[in-house]
Amino acid sequence: MTLLFKVDEARGRAWKSLFETHAPDIDVRFWPDIGDPSQVRYFAAWQPPRQLHERFPNLQVIFATSAGVDQFDLGELPEPIKVVRMLDPGIAQGIVEYACFAVLSLHRQIPLYLHQQQAGRWQDHFLTPAAQRRIGVMGLGNLGVAVLQSLRAFNFQLHGWARSQKSIDGVQCHAGDDQLESFLSQCDILICLLPLTDDTRDILNARTLAALPKGASLINLGRGGHLKEDDLLQALDSGQLSHAILDVLNEEPPSPDHRFWQHPHVWLTPHVGAMTAPQSAFEVLLANIRRHQVGKPMQGLIKRDHGY
Ligand code: GLV
């Protein structure tokens, strides 16, 4: 029974030593040293190669080393192969840190103050109390919920939106297409933490951005595919939106002439909101392998019909 990883060398070394120390019974290999393909039961990667099931006839589970699984072509994989997303607590921690940094920067008008500094201007602006600032999170999975729970400490007005009705302490929850516009109309700062599926692709578009209050801001921590970038540029240029903080883009890295690079109202980071760390992810991965070995349900199992 082999667990085959396709990861970079440094991460590979960390995974190898964790398995050697804590689970020596599992034969762990690293792409391209695949060993006997018929022995590979588990495959772990962020970007898996195509046609995995043809190369590994006894493959049973693919473990994404990421929270999102949109990079997998689920339709191509035969049904019996299970796909599991990474529920590393280190990812949630990273996303919470990034979301808090971004929300507090926008809430405290840091983009404006940085422009003023560059212009040599010393000028204060009215400080909106947190209790009057409305923050909305799209996507109420483990990451969205963790972000909302952390933001509660600041006393913001919190809203959440998901495809089905959820209940989260201290958060006004909205559900489904019918409630999307009324949710958006109450978000001064909107955070996208949705999974990328056929239903959510391009969900941040001219129509939805126009539903936000004038001068609202956007934080995209989901996927570049959620956002129609030209529509965001128009919303920023017209003043409908005041600022965007983007950790994910349609094309990563964006082309050197992409307008986001130099846009005065866009902050970009290179998809670093969270990173799976072998140290914290190891326990989650091993627990899932042990569950699978004894026929128990794994945590983070993807529902094929939902795509997440
Ligand atoms: C990173 O984007 C992830 O999905 O973990």
Automatic annotation (TrEMBL):
Which keywords does the record carry? Answer: NAD, Oxidoreductase, Pyruvate
Q: SUPFAM superfamilies from the entry?
A: Formate/glycerate dehydrogenase catalytic domain-like, NAD(P)-binding Rossmann-fold domains
Report if keyword Transmembrane is assigned: no
Question: Entry's Pfam families?
Answer: 2-Hacid_dh_C
* Signal peptide per UniProt: none
Top enzyme class, one word, equals: oxidoreductase
Q: Which residues form the D-isomer specific 2-hydroxyacid dehydrogenase NAD-binding domain?
A: 102-273
Chain ranges passing through the membrane: none
**InterPro entries with a match to the protein in the record:** D-isomer_DH_NAD-bd, NAD(P)-bd_dom_sf
Show the GO MF annotations.
glyoxylate reductase (NADPH) activity; NAD binding
**Recorded E.C. number(s)?**
1.1.1.79
Task: Report if keyword NAD is assigned.
Answer: yes
Entry-linked PANTHER family: 2-HACID_DH_C DOMAIN-CONTAINING PROTEIN (PTHR43333), D-ISOMER SPECIFIC 2-HYDROXYACID DEHYDROGENASE NAD-BINDING DOMAIN-CONTAINING PROTEIN (PTHR43333:SF1)
Please give the name of this protein. Glyoxylate/hydroxypyruvate reductase A
Species of the source? Pseudomonas extremaustralis
Please spell out the taxonomic lineage of the organism that makes this protein: Bacteria, Pseudomonadati, Pseudomonadota, Gammaproteobacteria, Pseudomonadales
**Chain's gene name:** ghrA_2
